[in-house]
Specification:
The protein is α+β, with helices and mostly antiparallel strands and 591 residues long. It has 9 helices and 32 strands.
Length: 591
């Protein structure tokens, strides 16, 4: 009996602690750093109703509004959601670091307190910001940051730029953002590593505050110049949902959507030159950590039989930005131009993989041919030293073929010379007895060829007359010629888009570029610098029908939206056909 009673008491205490653990009582501020002429909003929010609310004394502030009380009570999927908030508006009285003290409340007989919050008060700002203004809240809670892995790299050393968008827990982003300015990366070799729209949300810190963030893009750069270089900013147009004071019928807080243009800012890096001290003579610009080797597919063969010699560099570094060392072989080995091949992947740390050059080599004579060691040098930025790798010596044994004798001919092998003999069998493929037969000649006059050449031009005269008449009729058809010319021009500008119909993003990028290039050719201006309203005005001024202007602008909008939303192949084909039609008609109407 006592054991049963003990179990009941244990579960009762456990359930009570679970209920208590669910109680939340938090303090939130509109910002933690403000000017002395700005206002601060403080919210004390709880998820269960309570009594005897006791606010802090707000030392260093003057209360200019509040307390305002708001209650939200809603049911979703059978679960109750409750929220009660006390709001105060404060005006700072002095500069420096102030503190919002602890507020307290009693909930079900228990007293709960908020954590104190540190606030920094600065000198007066030129334009005071309103914490209740949606535009200001959006700008303060969404940030685009470009994180550079190394701001002081060596020439041709890989650096990584990671573009992160930080979003605070006070706002949300529920619609796709739009890229309005893409970095060009002048003076860099660049490779983007995009997430292809599959953005993963992480939790992190921004300026000491809790934020969520997504990695928009990772770009690997190899600087091609020394000195101070600029990394251009990435700029986005982002729709941000900002909570307002209004609530819907079920007590849920309504949001206001604000479109903000955010930029990662311009970043500078200082590129160091590769040292001259200790630089090997055969250094060709390789920077990284590499392995080097030389190999052949066979070491024993006959004269006039080919073998392959491969030089291969593998590892991590600027694999696509330097030349492999060339193979120097004996002159009696016939060497063809090497075939270059690459197996390189670009990761966040830079390029990794291998590059290979394959030589086809044909020995001419019998004998043993040593292939001297080949050296390869590179600069390792981690140790800041040059390293030189050398291959092993390879000996090629040619078993059958012309043999060498003295005083016949001399073939150079490296720095030594060896005499070789030219065997009689070497030229046996040349036929000495040609067995030629005389060619019997026939008179050309009155032959079939003679009459064909004589009568052929006469027979072609009617064809020329018919063709000339058709050409005149075609030239006289002004409207038809203009239509054909417009159709040809449209398909010329849209040829790139047609080639990429299998890829939605590439197709619409090419389509948008084609539309702007067409207007650039016709109007002799950069239409990409104009808004859609500006393009509409230009076309209407040049006499283009309003309906076709609307179709042209709608195509531009489709190009923007289709980059971020799925589109079927039928829609792509429809947009292509529509673009051909619109350009053709505009080319006829434009003046």
């Amino acid at each position: 009996m006592k054991l049963k009673y003990f179990i009941y008491v244990f579960f009762f205490m456990l359930s009570c602690s679970a209920v208590q653990a669910q109680v939340r009582f938090d303090a939130k501020v509109s910002k933690k750093r403000l000017g002395i002429n700005e206002r601060l909003r403080v919210d004390f929010e709880m998820n269960q109703d309570g009594d005897n609310f006791n606010p802090p004394d707000f030392k260093g502030f003057r209360v200019v509004g509040g307390p305002n009380q708001s209650v939200s009570n809603s049911w979703m999927n059978g679960k109750r959601s409750y929220s009660k908030t006390y709001s105060y508006f404060l005006s700072p009285q002095t500069r420096g670091k102030l503190k919002i003290g602890q507020a307290s409340i009693e909930i079900k007989g228990e007293t709960y307190k908020t954590l104190p919050i540190d606030i920094e008060i600065t000198s007066a700002v030129a334009v005071p910001k309103d914490g209740n203004n949606a535009e200001y809240v959006a700008s303060e809670n969404v940030h685009l940051v470009a994180e550079v892995s190394n701001a002081n790299p060596y020439l041709n050393e890989a650096i990584t730029v990671v573009y992160k968008m930080y979003v605070s827990h006070d706002v949300s982003i529920t619609s796709s953002w739009r890229e309005i300015d893409t970095p060009k990366y002048a003076d860099f070799w660049s490779q983007n590593i995009d997430s292809k729209g599959n953005y993963k949300i992480y939790e992190g810190k921004y300026r000491g505050e809790d934020y969520r963030y997504v990695i928009l893009r990772t770009t690997v750069l190899y600087p091609q110049k020394t000195g101070k270089l600029d990394i251009e900013p990435l700029t986005l147009d982002v729709p941000i949902d900002v909570p307002s004071k209004r609530r819907d019928l079920f007590g849920r807080r309504l949001t206001t959507r604000v479109n903000k243009t955010i930029s990662a800012g311009n970043r500078k890096i200082d590129v160091k030159p590769i040292p001259f001290d200790g630089r090997p003579d055969n250094f060709t610009g390789a920077v990284g950590d590499f392995k080097f080797g030389v190999s052949t597919n066979k070491n024993t063969l006959d004269a006039n039989e080919a073998f392959e010699l491969k030089t291969r560099v593998s590892g991590n570094g600027n694999l696509k930005l330097f030349d492999l060392p060339s193979a120097k072989l004996p002159s009696s080995l016939e060497v063809y131009e090497p075939e270059h091949s690459e197996s390189v992947r670009t990761k966040r740390s830079g390029m990794t993989g291998s590059i290979t050059e394959t030589y086809t080599v044909v020995p001419q004579y019998k004998g043993n041919y040593p292939i001297r060691p080949i050296t390869f040098s590179f600069f390792d930025p981690k140790t800041e030293t040059f390293k030189t790798l050398s291959s092993e010596e390879i000996v090629i044994n040619v078993e059958n073929g012309p043999v060498s004798v003295k005083k016949e001919a001399v073939a150079e092998t490296g720095n030594s010379k060896q005499a070789v003999i030219l065997s009689k069998e070497q030229f046996k493929y040349i036929k000495l007895d040609a067995d030629l037969e005389p060619i019997t000649s026939k008179p050309f006059f009155k032959s079939t060829l003679f009459w064909s050449l004589l009568g052929g031009p006469v027979l072609l005269i009617p064809l020329f007359i018919i063709g000339g008449k058709k050409r005149k009729r075609r030239l006289a058809d002004v409207e038809g010629n203009r239509l054909r010319k417009a159709d040809k021009l449209a398909r010329k500008h849209l040829s790139e888009a047609k080639k990429n119909m299998g890829s939605q993003v590439v197709f619409y990028e090419a389509l948008e570029r084609a539309l702007h290039n067409y207007l650039k050719a016709k109007l002799n201006i950069e239409t990409s610098e104009f808004s859609k309203e500006g393009i509409s005005g230009l076309l209407i001024e040049r006499g283009v029908n309003t309906g076709k202007v609307t179709d042209f602008v709608s195509l531009l909008k489709s190009c923007e939206f289709a980059r971020y939303t799925p589109t079927s192949n039928v829609t792509i084909q429809t947009d292509y056909n529509k673009a051909v039609e619109v350009i053709t008609v505009i080319d006829k109407q434009i003046q």
